[in-house]
Design brief:
6-stranded mixed sheet, alpha/beta, two-stranded antiparallel sheet, 266 residues
Length: 266
């Protein structure tokens, strides 16, 4: 008897919901109508994802009202980000129910960001040699890419894979954290090294491989101008690296059996 290999489908719930809602908000609908339409689209999308991915396990991960550890060490984290529309925030419970209607359990934490929970789930199953697929347009998950972890941009119908990372950034997925440590991430209000843009960051990573080696090279006589900039702003680079690296070791408090798909009776 053949054994079906585990395949965990992880849905970045608010990433999906906010984009579905944005489409409805552009129509001539009242906020209440837009929420109803978003819910219907969410169920339809969820069913498509389940059919196309054929997972053995699935979970939708939500961001809670979290004052994250990133905000503790860097108060400007995600400052200036567009807040969620109030009607969408008020309707989150009904949207969570939409996942349950599709047989998908939801994970929401009061202490951890969804990105870290997703990274923990994906890396946990990958460490056992099994497959994880993350549904999100968030390129931050590309740092996790490996043979066992894939990232799917549902809206642009593309895989955010190693080839995408190479084309977009000129580096390997394993170098992305250091790439963003140098350039920063404007969407999260994370500053990198002033004067080092994407092109220079790519060149430095192609030459030195990683940030640690670069910092060692900064000490050498006759170091190139970008390395001198890095030396001057070493603290900012190290802070950015800490902020952009996803946590992969959060205690989850449940096991895979609880998120099997289709749901199994106890």
């Amino acid at each position: 008897m053949s054994t079906i290999r585990p395949h965990l489908l992880i849905i970045d719930a608010l990433n999906l919901i906010r984009r579905l809602h944005a489409v409805q908000a552009q129509q001539a609908l009242t906020p209440a109508q837009a929420l109803v339409a978003t819910r219907a689209n969410l169920i339809n999308t969820c069913r498509k994802l389940l059919t196309n991915s054929e997972p053995t396990h699935v979970i939708a991960v939500f961001d809670g009202e979290v004052h994250s550890w990133r905000k503790e060490i860097y108060p400007a984290y995600k400052e200036g980000r567009t807040p969620m529309p109030p009607e969408l925030r008020e309707g989150l419970a009904t949207l969570q129910d939409a996942f349950w209607e599709c047989g998908v359990d939801a994970l929401l934490s009061d202490t951890d960001e969804a990105d870290d929970l997703i990274a923990t789930l994906a890396s946990g199953i990958a460490s056992h040699g099994h497959q994880a697929t993350i549904i999100s347009t968030d390129k931050g998950f590309c740092q996790l890419i490996c043979p066992q972890i894939r990232v799917r941009d549902y809206f642009n119908k593309r895989w955010l894979d190693a080839a995408f990372v190479q084309q977009q950034y000129g580096v390997a997925p394993a170098q992305l954290v250091d790439f963003w440590a140098l350039t920063g991430i404007s969407g999260s209000n994370i500053k990198g090294v002033p004067g080092i843009g994407p092109k220079t960051a790519t060149q430095l990573l192609q030459q030195y491989g990683n940030l640690t080696t670069m910092l060692e090279a900064c000490q050498q006589e006759g170091a190139a101008k970008p390395l001198l900039k890095l030396h001057q702003h070493q603290d900012e680079a190290l802070m950015a690296r800490r902020l952009v690296r996803l946590q992969q070791d959060i205690p989850l408090g449940f096991n895979l059996r609880e998120i099997r798909y289709p749901p199994q009776p106890d």
